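RETRY 2/3 - previous attempt timed out on the joint model. Re-submitting the same 330-residue input unchanged.
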Amino acid sequence: MSEPSKIVKTIASIIFPFTMVFGIYVILHGHLTPGGGFQGGAIVASGIVLLLVAFGSAEIAKRVKESHLSILESIGALSFISLALLGLSTTFFYNFLAGSNFIFGRIPPFGSNPGDMNTGGVLPLMNISVGLKVIAGLSAIVLVLSLFARSRKQRKR
Amino acid sequence: MPFQEIINIVLPLMIVASAVIVVALKDLLAAAIALAVMSLLLSLEFYMLHAPDVAIAEAGVGACLTTAILIFAIKATRRMEDGR
Amino acid sequence: MNKIAILMVFIIFSCALISTILTLRPFGEPKSTEMDDYIIKNAQNETGSNNAVTSVVFDYRGFDTLGEATVLFTAVAGVLLVLRRNAHE
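RETRY 2/3 succeeded.
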């Protein structure tokens, strides 16, 4: 297969920031609108994969190392588990921030309301940590697979 | 007949048709793209069944990441399916 | 011979699926259960989140999300373990 053309590269570099913004929006508004950590992380990872397909794996591997990605994934998993452990005074996965007047601590009125970012207790923090984990994990998988495919193709020649 | 019922009848037929196309194609790159089309139609069907969370996850993972992984696998091997 | 075997397997499998379809409940039933009512009434007050799906996923059923995170972590660890050494040669 030959190198992707200039049209593909231009369209990919135009679409990429919009994909990032939409994915981060889905992660951050996970407690208000449909979506959440996994869905938004999959959207952001698909933006990174679009760059990988359009520009080739060698160009991306110069800037992003998969060891850094696996460190990011471990940070996401550890913060998720420690957020769950922080509520251990009542139960595991207890929502200790809801109702307190600290960060994300407001309670919305019952029924349908326009929504407020400052609600939800630990749910937005958990969304962010799971989103970080999914972004790093899926990008690391596809990056390593593309590098493996490239090295295998070079060895065959 | 309301618009929603027409969609509910036409969408599953299109999903089955694109799945049959995936099996029938000999060009593996075209088959991967047909699989992406099937995933996109499946996410539209999830949206019509009032499950937007599942629809977003299916569109992200099924239509984009799986297609990219299959494209890299095709890049490392052959593009055409042999008759053998 | 091979094609006949594939056809037999296909027919048996589709018979099993069709017999399952015939015993399905109508779409949207059962209409209400106690768990649904409890979550719809109390999710906004207890977790403070407008999206009831997120409050179920991360709060009421947090253990399931922990399992899902473990599955993803194991998958990434396996892929990196198998393919990373070959990628840099």
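Chain B has three helices and no strands. Closing ticket.
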